[in-house]
Write a structure and sequence with these properties.
Blueprint: H1 10-30, H2 35-69, H3 72-83, H4 98-106
Pfam families: DivIC
Keywords: Coiled coil, Membrane, Transmembrane, Transmembrane helix
Protein name: Septum formation initiator
Length: about 110
């Protein structure tokens, strides 16, 4: 019996292929668990993990800075460099170079 030329099975073959294609398209694009949604979610997870890693590094850096500021010398250094504070009977001279001034103006 030749199944390829069987006149009774030909309509079922085309319907089967059509259903299979429709099922594949539905699962890839339209279903709530589709490949597109999974791809978007995986991309978002990667971005969030990168952000998490960045913020963990920032926390470590800030903790180191806090340790430096917890000492008297570190706090004094921060106040002098950031707010140009000084001790009594002391003068501070701020020296700015021409190349640093040009870089600030162009930013």
């Amino acid at each position: 019996m030749d199944f390829k030329n069987n006149k009774y099975l030909k309509p079922f073959k085309s319907i089967f292929i059509l259903i299979l294609v429709l099922f594949a398209v539905w699962m890839l694009f339209f279903d709530t668990n589709s490949w597109l949604i999974h791809h978007e979610l995986n991309t978002e997870i990667e971005e969030l993990e990168n952000e998490k890693e960045y913020y963990q590094k920032e926390i470590e850096k800030d903790n180191k800075d806090l340790k430096k500021l917890s000492t008297e010398e570190g706090l004094e250094k921060f106040a002098r460099e950031t707010y140009y504070m000084k001790r009594e009977n002391e003068e501070i001279f701020i020296i700015e170079y021409e190349d640093s001034l040009k870089a600030e103006q162009h930013d």
